[in-house]
């Protein structure tokens, strides 16, 4: 990891408007413990938990709570590396379970326990929340909500995306953002960090493989963004079957009409426009597969392909 210090990046609190006062990240309110925050090259802010790089709003006490949290058979936890289609998947789950109810925002329809920023619900509040409970997570298998997934009654759904598209999307999403320390590095530096497992969430290859290797467990469903993009009807039916949700043609048509990229980008329910740094539709960028070709050079693509072959070649997982 790049050289690090415990110096905090200057807070931008003085520039934020009252409208976004709660929803703009800042260390003092959301980082839990300031002493273990580290600053790498180009201001990249992070902390280390269980040997992995995580964003500053994942605090050690909150993380410990997620590991001992008792799940139930009606619980659903969707998991991914960030920028892999998790918002898309969350909306599908909310529609399948009817968890939107009278909620104003998608993020009010599920719980992200590991985060001390946008989802600051207490353990007691989550314990008393309506069932079924839907949980979000960006953790690898061995850091999962509730402890060991295969020993939990909870159903886990993991979604993975082509790592090149994921890498590009994360670069545009995290650059110059408060939660990344206003990281100012250029693309070449970001790609190097990603390939070396130094971005938030650690090594992408280890993260995805940790869930892929347990995909045959009865309570784990492994999906890819590309399959969902190619045949959303089949994938929605697969998710419904995994959850034991009855699917009728009319219901399927209704869900399909709501989960298109254009519909979600235009919806006030699914956007994160109330967050200051995402107020211009940044949460939904392109929604395409293969847009990495606009960012990678030929040499970078070849180097990445070689890394993928070395890390994933024997896994049987390809994009």
From TrEMBL:
GO terms for molecular function: sulfotransferase activity. Residues 74-315 form the Sulfotransferase domain. InterPro entries: P-loop_NTPase (IPR027417), Sulfotransferase_dom (IPR000863). Keywords: Transferase. Pfam families: Sulfotransfer_1. The keyword Transferase applies. Belongs to the sulfotransferase 1 family. This is Sulfotransferase domain-containing protein. It comes from Aspergillus nomiae NRRL (strain ATCC 15546 / NRRL 13137 / CBS 260.88 / M93).
